[in-house]
Amino acid sequence: FLMIRRPPRSTPSNSSAASDVYKRQVRVWVADSKGRGVYGRLETYSNFLILKPFRNLSPGETYEVRISNIHAVGDTSQVYNIAFSFKTSDEVDETPPRITRILQLVNVDGSIKRLPLDVPVRPDGAFLIVFSEPMFQREFNPRSGIIIEPGVVESMHVTFPTVTEARLDVNGLLEDTTYTIKLKKGLFWDLAGNPTPEHSFTFRTEERE
User: Fold this and answer.
1) How far is the C-alpha of 201 from the C-alpha of 48, rounded, in Å?
2) Rounded to 5 degrees, what angle do the CA atoms 53, 63, 132 make?
3) Cβ neighbourhood burial of 20 (10 Å; 0-12, 13-18, 19+)
4) Measured between alpha carbons, how far is 80 from 9 in angstroms, rounded to an integer?
5) What are phi and psi of 133, to 5 degrees?
6) Separation between Cα atoms, residue 209 and residue 194, nearest integer Å
7) Which of 190, 96, 197 is nearest to 145 (CA)?
8) Which of 73, 86, 128, 147 is 20 to 30 A away from residue 63, measured at CA?
9) 127 alpha-carbon distance from chain centroid
């Protein structure tokens, strides 16, 4: 996929093709060195666009990108037109990223400590997911791809402290309870668009006095 960042304050939406108009304003055009257009699904988020081509881009090829009529929602006083080019790698990366380890994060006297999961986890648990390579940092609803058993938690939130790590905060875990968290396939992607396989881990929460 191709990620294109844009000015903030834009409203999320979705369109089905590269030539579609975002909110009847933004247009994205991509073509190779011979002028052949690249078509795909255009996804829009709060401050970036993702173009997922229907076919893989050619290795070792130079592509030109043009984005026109970008402006903040409700403000047409400043309009942005962007043009840039990029060249694809000579080799195609089809190797999925791996989750190499998962640790718990504990705040000890204002300092964040990384502990193994065999140490009882606090009910307001925070976990660090470590990947084998740099990952694409995106916004998403954790409930769509993370299953926690047993029971229902109050909330979940995912952030990316580094390009090879994701932090999962879980609120509302019960004390002295064994949990299993399943991360569904494709919950995370590497920079080439390869999804992570399904991954599960188990831990037990501490019993507070």
Assistant:
1) 32
2) 60
3) middle
4) 14
5) -160, 170
6) 45
7) 197
8) 73
9) 17
Instruction: Read off the pLDDT of residues 21-39 as tens digits, 9 standing for 90 and up.
Output: 334 456 788 888 888 888 8
The predicted model scores a pTM of 0.68
Cα separation values, 134 from 59, 68, 76, 103, 149, Å: 20, 30, 36, 18, 29
Q: Residue 198: which of 52, 97, 118 has the closest Cα?
A: 97
How many Cα atoms sit within 13 Å of 194 on the Cβ side? 15
Q: Residue 12 has which token pair?
A: 């999320």
CA distance 190 to 96: 7
Each residue's pLDDT expressed in tens, for the chain with a length of 209 residues: 555 554 443 333 333 333 333 344 567 888 888 888 888 877 776 667 777 787 878 889 999 988 887 766 666 677 778 888 999 888 888 899 999 999 999 988 889 999 999 999 998 889 999 999 999 888 788 988 999 999 778 899 999 999 999 999 999 999 999 999 999 999 999 988 899 999 999 999 998 76
- Do residues 195 and 186 touch, judged by C-beta distance below 8 A? yes
Tokens of 66: 């043009």
